[in-house]
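TL;DR need C-alpha cells for one chain.
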Amino acid sequence: MVQSDPEALARDLRGSSPRFQMTFAVPPPNPAALAERCTARAAEHDRSGRLAHENIAALRETGLVALTMPRRLGGGLTLARATAVVVTVGRGDPATGLVHAITLLQHELIHRDGAPWPRTVPDAVGWDAEARFALINALRVEPEFGTPARGGLPATCARRDGDGWRVMGRKIFSTGAGALNPCGPRRPRSPIHRLTSVS
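>> reply
TL;DR here they are.
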C-alpha cells in the first residue's frame, strides 16, 4: 500500500529538492489539493475522450513534474517516494496521474547511472522540466508493429544532419502526446539537441 498522508508527502517534498526548500512563506506543493482541483474536471474529460489540459496545467503549476530528476537539477525523490505523489494526483484524475507517472518514469530512466546518453542529453531534458515544467514520454508505438514492448525494432531512426539530427518515422500514439513539448528541449549550449527536421 502506498502511503499518501498529506503531511508525510509535504515532508518528503520539502526534503527532496532545492525548489521546495524555500522560505516559510512559500509552502511546498500539495498533491491532495491538486487532486481536488482535478476531480471536478476528470469526469467530463473521460466522457469527451479529450486530454485534460486544465489538469495538466494545474500539475505543471505545482512544480511536481521534475521530482525524480537528480537533486542538482531540482528533483531528488526516488520513484518509490514519488509514487505516493502520483497515487494522490491519480485519485483526483487518473489520466493526469498517468501522464505524471510516465514523465517521472522517463526522468528516472534517462538520469540513472549507466544511461546510454551523454550527460548533456538528460540534463537538457531536466532543465526543460525544471524551467518550463515540460512533460516527457517515449514515443514508441508505430503502425507496422504497435508497441516495441511486444518485440521488434522500431522503424523510426535518427541520423546526423550537419550539426543536428534528422528524425524519420511515424508514430501513431503516445500517452499525453497533446501535452508534450514538440521536438524535446531546446537549450543553446547543448548542440546535440539541435533537430534539423522531423519527417
